[in-house]
Amino acid sequence: MSDPGIAEKLVEVLQRPDGDLALRPVHTIGISATGFFKPSPIAQNFCVADHFKAEKTDVIVRFSNGSGCAVVHDGWSDVRGMAVRFHLSDGTDTDLIAMTLPEFFAPTPETFLEFAEEAEPKLYKGESPWRKIANYLQLILPARDPYPGETISPDAGAIAFADSNAYSQLGVLQAAQIGAPTSYVRAAYHAVHTFVVTGADGTRRWVRFSWQPIAGVLSTNPAEPPVDDYLRAELKKRLAKETARFSLMMTIGEIGDDFNNSSRPWPPHRKRIMMGTLTLNAVPEDQTGLSEKLSFNPGLLTDGIAASDDPVLKVRIDSYKISSAWRGGAPCPFSES
Fold it and tell me: How far apart are CA 152 and CA 265, in angstroms?
């Protein structure tokens, strides 16, 4: 287990001044959808977990904006989240939590807390055209102009932290340029941390999971004015007419890959296994009980899938539990497996 003091401090620090203590400190705005997961024919060879052996497993999915702002700004550049709960055949659940960034910002709980403290949103200070030109000449990414009505900068503190801490540079750079998706189901989501899966023959493999949208990735045009609130309505309209699907891809790590540092990417040529297809077909009416009060946790695992020794994964497990209790979420059916 991680240091509970760090986990509690993280939840406190991640609260934004424009957030809401009754809601999540990050990934505050969201919507849930229901559907089912069907494993690929070879999935159970690589992992004996129930949802990779069953013919079909019911799921509930919560999509979200990464920001802790309690006001909807769907068109603003922001990381998006996808939390999936599989309802297993024995009546238990297992979660897979992912985001549109493929890497995390820090390698340890201590550096994660330092990052969160330094990256705390501050009043926006725009750059002059001359400063932007100077940054380009120095191969420095210039700060973007604020959106209409945007007074708090989500990037300035993180960029300053990355200037002095190389491990955070990739994640911060990607987050600063990530843009906005045209739909929650037109983005790719990455579980970031490494997990250990056990195959049918007993072989244990260190892996990372990602969701790839069947419809393809599509972002909004950054040259056009951002629309504040469209993602939830778009998902409702889409699923009322047709289903939306994702492929679950599992990347297998090799010797030399860093299994316990989610801020370091693996080489792009690692073997990937298509583990199954997620189909979403409805948006439930009860978005309070089935979205806002629902408590996901990256440590809610099942036989066949175990957590790696990634220390940030461990502190996130504790932080999710603390956050759920603080906001009055439904108790998480937590498992240490």
Answer: 30
Exposure pattern of 260-273 as b/e (b: 16+ CB <10 Å)? Answer: bbbbebbeeeeeeb
Task: Tell me the per-residue pLDDT of 253-278, one tens digit each, with 9 for 90 and over.
Answer: 999 999 999 999 999 999 999 999 99
Rounded-to-integer distance, Cα 74 and Cα 29, Å: 9
Nearest one of 207, 228, 195 to 306, comparing CA atoms: 195
Measured distance CA(240)–CA(236) in Å, rounded: 6
All domains in the chain, ordered by first residue: 4-106+167-327 (2.40.180.10)
Closest CA to 293 of 319, 334, 331: 331
Could you tell me the CA-to-CA distances from 337 to 7, 22, 92, 157, 252 in Å, in that order?
20, 30, 12, 36, 21
Run of H or E residues at 319: helix 311-327
Per DSSP, the three-state class of 141 is: coil
Contacts of 290 (CB under 8 A, 6+ apart): 32, 34, 60, 284
Q: What is the pLDDT of residues 307-321, one digit of tens each?
A: 999 999 999 999 999
Nearest to 61 by CA among 80, 40, 39: 80
Task: Report how far apart, in Å, the C-alpha atoms of 308 and of each of 170, 226, 258, 301 are.
Answer: 22, 39, 11, 12
Helix (H, G, I), strand (E, B) or coil at 195: strand
CA-nearest of 329, 237, 298, 269 to 28 is: 329
209 SS3 class: strand
* Eight-class DSSP state of 145: P
Other CB atoms within 10 A of residue 309 CB: 11
How many CA atoms does the CB half-sphere of 230 hold within 13 Å? 12
- CA terminus-to-terminus distance, the chain: 12
As a whole number, mean pLDDT of residues 16-29 equals 90
